[in-house]
What we know:
Blueprint: H1 8-13, E1 19-23, H2 29-32, H3 35-38, E2 43-47, H4 49-57, E3 63-67, H5 69-73, E4 78-88, E5 95-99, E6 108-111, H6 116-130, E7 135-138, E8 151-156, H7 159-162, E9 172-175, H8 176-184, E10 188-196, H9 204-215, H10 219-226, H11 234-244, E11 245-246, H12 251-266
Parallel strand pairs: 1-2, 1-3, 6-7, 6-8
Antiparallel strand pairs: 3-10, 4-10, 4-11, 5-8, 5-9
Amino acid sequence: MRPAHPSPLTDRLRAQRPAVGCVSYLNAKPLIDGFDAALPGHDLVLEVPAGQIDLLLADQVDLALCPVVDYYRSPAPLVAVPVGGIGCAGPTLTVRLFSPVPLDQITAVRLDADSHTSVCLLAVVLDAVYGIRPAVTVGLPGADEPDPPGVARLLIGDKVVTHAPADADFPHQLDLGGAWHELTGRPFVFALWLARAGTDLGELPSKLAAMLEANLPRTDAIAAAYAAEHGWPVDSAADYLGRVLRYRVGQAELDAVENFARRAATLGLIPAPAGPLLTAPTVPIAPTVEDTRA
């Protein structure tokens, strides 16, 4: 299943079983719950979003759920495998800017660096909506470390629920998924399955697609199974997985990725796209289907 022209690293890893990289947050569970039963003989490698591209480029996994900006930044050619992703069509709840001052008065942002896409989305939204390009610092402050005046914080993932700063200290907040939807009217895709171009994925895409379709009607059960270990109340987790997030990737979602990439490239955040988003040749792109989950 690995590329036809292996590097020495590939030779060393070739004896390993086929592997899939996925993020370790609650939001990814509908993509991978039941993995061992659906994909016997495959390994699942969990890592934060920003670490997925390193796994993929090092050939430690055959397919990885990567931040979408990593498709454009990758030194090696990649293809999107549109059998699932993590996105939204409005507020996302777990990509959130917290500010002690009105948003147009922010002077700097301290970033949660776990997701490359969210950092770029922040810059796109702040420039387009508020006309500001604040300085950024990677790394969040310690519990007793005060922020200078005008410094906001960007949190992603489970930390927005488990370690959000106090509303009294950060009364001005912005959900980046909601801000993008208001700006463009489009959905947003934070992460997509990506593979190295030329990789023979075999039945892996179809198995992942089937696993997702089996899991979408049972997001309440998935929330009940995993909420506690991620620090979520079960009811909030069920609403988040079942109503807020969108996991299917169709043409509208791929178009939104390209729209985002053009905006990010204009700000110098990623290289200018060389052409349309490339998808795995054996994986058909489904038309976007209205998600009817409550």
